[in-house]
Design a protein that fits this description.
The protein has 309 residues and is of the alpha/beta class. It has two domains: 127 residues, no CATH class; 147 residues, no CATH class.
Length: 309
């Protein structure tokens, strides 16, 4: 059986920090944000010509590549490159461990939106390539989720990049919201022992140790000296802006009214049966949605304006 692991996350849950922390251990190699082999890591991307030399793999192929690299005393793993639970079966079939990295969804959405909209604004000023790629991802996400919204006239398709440009921020927000909610829905089927919360493993030594020992199947030492290095490596989440609130309700109320309404409408459809993934930290979001459902259902959706993807 191979010494491998995979930690799934939509992002915004200190995945860079975690990959760095795991890589500090001399017997662990952890790749971040890559579906390619050799791995292309968000921790330090090579020039474009080097990226083009790599090959994007399927989840099964990626797991087998990690297994080929692993040794009896050295674990290979990945974080964040593949989303939802697509890496679970390939990893576990080879004897590895699979976990989900959880975070309050309101805080995750806020962090990811701020991060991605800054990047997209910069891309708009420089080139269209990143925007076109982003648009394609949004359309693919739309195709995967359209069944959820087939009874609702919220979704309008824009066929050209020029049309997209006029709705860039709204599209980015919807992309983050739908990605977060659909990913967490997918991961909510995991056992509690496979779910680790960002606030726990980034702040509590014992919880990070639990995560480390689970990923490495209790086969590697997690010493106090190693934990000292982990918790002295710097900023936990580089997406988070200085002074940003950690209170989910304050974060939600700080969004523009239009974004609050867009979010509530979409979340109400995703969780139409009140099946909230509480094991992934959805208590606050559940309370907000339940208190808003009566209001939402009594309103004419058209008064919220056009919502596009």
């Amino acid at each position: 059986m191979a010494n491998i692991f995979y930690a799934s996350s939509w992002g915004g849950s200190a995945t860079n920090w975690l990959a760095n922390a795991l890589n500090i251990h001399p017997n662990v190699t952890c790749f971040h944000g890559s579906r390619r082999w050799p791995p292309v890591s968000a921790l330090g991307d090579p020039p474009d010509q080097e990226v083009n030399k790599t090959v994007e793999l399927s989840p099964k192929e990626f797991a087998h590549k990690m297994a080929e690299m692993s040794r009896e005393d050295h674990f290979f793993g990945g974080v964040h490159g593949f989303h939802e639970h697509c890496m679970q079966e390939p990893t576990q079939c080879l004897g590895g461990r699979f976990v989900a990295l959880a975070r309050d969804p309101l805080l995750r959405i806020d962090s990811l939106f701020r991060h991605h909209i800054d990047a997209l604004r910069a891309a708009r000023a420089v080139e269209f390539l990143n925007l076109a790629t982003f648009y394609l991802q949004c359309r693919q996400l739309h195709e995967r989720l359209v069944y959820t919204f087939e009874d609702c006239h919220l979704i309008e398709k824009y066929e050209t990049l020029d049309q997209l440009m006029g709705h860039l921020e709204e599209l980015c927000f919807l992309w983050v919201v739908l990605g977060t909610l659909s990913t967490d829905q997918s991961l909510s089927i995991l056992d509690d022992r496979q779910i680790f919360h960002m606030d726990d493993y980034t702040q509590e030594r014992d919880r990070f140790r639990d995560l480390f020992l689970y990923l490495t199947q209790d086969r590697l030492p997690c010493t106090e000296a190693y934990l000292d290095q982990v918790f002295h490596q710097g900023k936990v989440n580089r997406h988070r802006k200085k002074g940003a609130s950690k209170d989910p309700i304050r974060v939600f109320l700080g969004w523009p009214a239009k974004y609050q309404k867009m979010f509530l409408l979409l979340a109400t459809h995703v969780f139409d049966k009140d099946d909230f993934p509480l094991n992934l930290g959805y208590e606050t979001l559940r309370d907000i949605i339940l208190s808003s459902k009566t209001i939402i259902k009594s309103q004419n959706l058209s008064e919220y304006g056009d919502i596009i993807i």
